[in-house]
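Q: Please design a sequence for this.
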């Protein structure tokens, strides 16, 4: 019997505080621990949770810090599920991940970094699978809406053997310091990131692949389809390789959807400038200084943020559409998604897919995750188009 059901590591960071607050409202009956290197700051987060729900007085505080392998291992051994918001993960995530596997607990994070996920699969999938662990990456806006949206689309086409799905993503939001710094680092390594491919879970006779994404005006959608070089389509493919509901042949194409030509041109120019500057050490450091880690957009700014992802699937003459939509994608909804992934790992074990190892959110949680998102007021609807 472990002391905690769920331990939140990095609870004093910008996203960690949002996750803690959400747990205070929605995790009744869950034994929660907050972990980090500063017990005083953790106490402040706990007080904020108690202000939301007095029952949060039962929350435990755990001192743990990066570089302290024994302390991290002890933290993992006391919990059923380790939730970590400590990033950038490629730089800071390896210690907590190792602690979870060696401490034999489930794990979920919000990384969107392909290198980190690939290295995790290579290093830990076999051991996690042998131990019956679910190690879940990309449990926030990267990549829950896309993973779940495609999953619900193929479920609506169940029985089809040859399935093609296209995803179209629109979003508005402002980055926190941590996300901004991660993005600048990612831009500096864009060429190497483009070559990263996540290993798939091989099944004889099952073929999954990415379809092309080209700049194109979509009259049916009222906007421009444009390439969107995120980890999300690779997470979708990893789910498809693991689960038979995707059929024996599955193709997914992932796009941004931009309504205005002016926004398309302005966004391309701005992104190109950031990528170019990120290649230079001095300019990269200057860009990072513009938005310090630990800071984030105000509640008012987050309230104006939103996302809407549309997935159109075709198979055996049928055509369906799934919409996943919500409010602030980067923080409020990411905190919600991360918390619900973790709560699903803790409370829904009897209905989870019989798949273990280093997994995508859908492969780890299956329909339980869809149900949790709907209950958490994230729009998730599917309809027939033909």
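A: Design:
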């Amino acid at each position: 019997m472990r002391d905690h059901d769920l331990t939140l590591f990095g609870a004093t960071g910008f996203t960690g505080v949002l996750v803690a607050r959400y747990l205070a409202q929605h995790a009744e009956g869950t034994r929660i621990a907050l972990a980090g290197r500063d017990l005083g700051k953790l106490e402040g987060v706990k007080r904020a949770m108690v202000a939301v729900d007095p029952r949060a007085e039962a929350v435990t505080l755990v001192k743990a810090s990066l570089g302290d392998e024994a302390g991290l291992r002890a933290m993992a051994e006391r919990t059923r599920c380790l939730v970590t918001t400590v990033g950038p993960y490629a730089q800071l995530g390896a210690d907590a991940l190792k602690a979870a596997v060696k401490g034999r607990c489930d794990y979920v994070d919000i990384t969107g970094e392909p290198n980190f996920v690939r290295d995790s699969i290579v290093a830990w999938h076999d051991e996690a699978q042998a131990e019956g662990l679910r190690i879940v990456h990309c449990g926030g806006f990267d990549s829950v809406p896309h993973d779940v949206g495609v999953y619900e689309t193929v479920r609506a086409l169940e029985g089809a053997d040859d399935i093609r799905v296209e995803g179209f993503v629109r979003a508005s939001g402002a980055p926190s310091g941590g996300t901004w710094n991660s993005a600048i680092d990612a831009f500096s390594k864009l060429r190497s990131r483009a070559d990263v491919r996540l290993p798939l879970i091989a099944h004889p006779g099952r073929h999954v692949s990415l379809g092309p994404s080209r700049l194109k005006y979509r009259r049916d959608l009222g906007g421009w389809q444009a390439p969107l070089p995120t980890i999300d389509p690779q997470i979708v493919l990893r789910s498809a390789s693991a689960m038979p509901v995707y059929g024996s042949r599955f193709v997914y194409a992932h796009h941004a959807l931009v309504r205005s030509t002016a926004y398309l041109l302005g966004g391309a120019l701005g992104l190109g400038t950031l990528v170019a500057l990120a290649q230079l050490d001095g300019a990269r450091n200057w860009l990072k200084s513009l938005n310090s880690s630990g800071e984030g957009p105000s509640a008012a700014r987050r309230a104006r943020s939103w996302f809407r992802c549309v997935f159109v699937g075709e198979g055996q003459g049928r055509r369906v559409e799934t919409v996943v939509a919500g409010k602030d994608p980067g923080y409020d909804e990411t905190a919600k998604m991360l918390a619900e992934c973790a709560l699903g790992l803790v409370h829904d074990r009897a209905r989870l897919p019989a798949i273990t190892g280093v997994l995508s959110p859908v492969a780890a949680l299956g329909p339980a995750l869809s149900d949790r998102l709907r209950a958490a007021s994230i729009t998730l609807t599917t309809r027939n188009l033909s």
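Q: Thanks. Anything notable?
A: The chain has a mean pLDDT of 88. DSSP finds 16 helices and 15 strands in the chain.
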